[in-house]
Each structure stands twice: as structure tokens, then as C-alpha cells.
Design brief:
It is a single chain. This protein has 370 residues and is α/β, with parallel strands linked by helices. It has 2 domains: 2-142, 3-Layer(aba) Sandwich (Rossmann fold), CATH 3.40.50.450; 150-367, no CATH class. Helix content is 38%, strand content 19%. The chain is built from 12 helices and 15 strands. It has helices at residues 13-25, 43-53, 75-83, 101-114, 125-142, 150-160, 190-193, 196-207, 265-286, 312-317, 345-348, 350-367; strands at residues 2-6, 29-31, 56-61, 89-94, 119-122, 174-182, 221-225, 228-233, 237-241, 247-252, 263-264, 294-301, 309-310, 334-335, 341-342. The strands form 3 sheets. Strands 6, 7, 8, 9, 10, 12, 14 and 15 form an 8-stranded antiparallel beta sheet that branches. It has a 5-stranded parallel beta sheet with strand order 2-1-3-4-5, sandwiched between helices. Strands 11-13 form a two-stranded parallel sheet. Strand 7 (221-225) and strand 8 form a beta hairpin. Helix 1 (13-25) packs parallel to helix 5, helix 2 (43-53) packs parallel to helix 3 and helix 9 crosses helix 12 (350-367). The radius of gyration is 23 Å and the shape is globular. The N and C termini lie far apart (50 Å).
Amino acid sequence: MKVFISSLITGMEPIRAAARSAVVGLGHEVIMAEDFGAKPTSPQVACLDGIRQAGIVVLVLGKDYGAKQPSGLSATHEEYREARQSRPVIAFVQEGVDRDPDEAALVKEAQEWVGGLFRGGFTSPEDLQAKIGRAVHEVMLSRAAGPVNEGSLLERALGMLPKDNRSYSSMGRNLNVGFACGPTQAILRPSRIEDRTLAEELSQAAMFGPLRIFDRTKGVTEAVEDGSLVIRQERETSFTLSPQADLLFALPIPRADDMMGGVIEEDIADLLERALRYAAFVLDRVDPTQRITHVVPVASIGHAQMLAWQTRVEATRNRGSMSYGMGRDEPSPVRLTPALRTRSALTHDAADLIEDFVTLLRREYRSNSN
């Protein structure tokens, strides 16, 4: 496996040498800016290309931020932003140093994004070398179940979504959001799926607090169906957790009385945000050691005599002028391109994911109204 070492070079030579030794000692190939040599592209392009070739990125942050590129970010900051889109990032922060303000801001950003397992402080090159060795080994263990196959995860994610909601009543107008998790492996044993403590904890989080996805005025039922834990609130709302930690949400789309039941874009965005936040919480709860590294999210809208898709402002402006969409085709599920995303993206790239899904759902919904 190739491992990219990202850090400021000047003044960090002993630290970068320790990072190299840790990776080489595990039998992996190192990608570092010092090794690029003469290239027809700029150093910036060469480094970003190196990240795209790597399976893991090791980010080492010290006291200095480094020179800013035309983007307004340092080279290390650009590398980090590129890596976090699709690669596991193992970040280490030098302790006992006075950081300049820009470097302190980057440290805060990285710490908030990476999460608890693959992050740590270090006090010396020797300390860093040992910690990088352990962290890279942990990442490799998380992949022991096999590689992350985007195609198979996408197929599994789409297979979770309801095939047709036409037979439902108007209360069956749901936003369905699924997450297939990889590498594919058994995360929850059957006894864990049947654990009442887990079911009750997930139900509480689903009904109360900032992660709420259910109506707190209604009760819930918990059951094991086809080997998965299903938490349901009446017929129209449910959350399903499989042994592989795949997640499926069926969330009712609010009925806007002033639209005669049409779809409000802001309501869809709100439901997507709830699903993403709750999904991230569940994965942290059932897989705290981060064996799951990637997810493929998909979404669909099930409808029965659905009306127009509009923003809240458009709905107010067009009140009373809506027309029914009888006989239209069921909107197809939508997926991102690429479909595969890092697990941390559920939290730290949530705004972009929501915006992209809203755009795709709107496009698909409106294409079936013509």
C-alpha cells in the first residue's frame, strides 16, 4: 500500500524522516514531496496527484503553517482538503510548541474532522514513529475483511430502497435514505442485534435531542426482521440497522397544507440532514474502532399522487395554483458520483452531501412531472 506523508518540509526534516521509517518498517511504500524529483507539473499538482495514488494519508502538523498558495491555503492544508474527500487521514499534532494562528486553525479543523481513533499528539520523532506504526496497522486491520468495492456497495445500497410506493396511502410519501457500509463484514453479531440496551439507546436518540428523526409525540416499536434491527414509528417512519451496519431510513415528507400536499425543498434538506447526523451517530455507536471506513449513500422519494416540488418561497407565491401529478412515473433513486465516500464525510462534508442530494432529487422528481 502507498502512504502519503503530508507536512511542512522546512524545519520538520527529522519528523518526516521518522514518519518515513514508520511506514517503510511496515512494508508499505512512501510518497513524499522530497522524492518527486523533476516533473513537468507544478509541485502542487504533483503532491495532489500523489495523494490520489495513496491508500492512506499521514498528516503531521507542527508549529508553522507554511507559505500560502494562490488558493490562500498552505500546501499542507491543500493536501489535507484533497485527502479527506476520499482517503483515511491519520493526523498527528506536535505537542509543546507555540503554533502560529493559521496552523492552529488547521489543527482545529483536522482534529474536528478526523475523529478519535486515528489522531494523536507526539512529543518527539521517535514518539511519532511508534504512533504512526500503530495507527497504520489499525487501518490495515480495518480492511482485513476485504477491499472496499464501490460497485457492490452501490448495488447493495440501491437494493435496500423500497421498489415502489404507489400502493401506499398518501401517508406513505417518504424520503428514503440508505447507506451501504464497507469493507463488507459482520459488524454486529446476532446477539448484538437483539440487545435491548442497543435498541433502547437508538430509539431514545431517534426521538429526543439533536439527533431526532422521529416524532417525539408518538411511540416506537422495536423488532428484529430478516436479521436486522428495525425501529418503527407507525407505518410511515422507520430505521433499519443490518449486521453489516448498513442503514436505511424511511422518513415521512411533511405535508404542506398551503401546497395541497406538494414537496417543499427545505423539508427534504432537513430530512437529509437528520438522516446523515443520525447515521454518523449510529456508526460511532456500533463501530467505535472504525472498521467501517467508507459508505455509499443513496436516496429516493416514494409518492402517491405527488404534487410539485418547490421552495418554500415559490410555494407561497404560487399558493392555490398547484395541479395534481396523477399517473407520473415513480422517481428513480439517486446516487452521488462517485458513489463511494469516506465515513467521516457523513459529518464533516454533510452540507455538500445534502446540497448534492437535494439537487439530484429535485432533478429526478421534476423530470417525472413532465
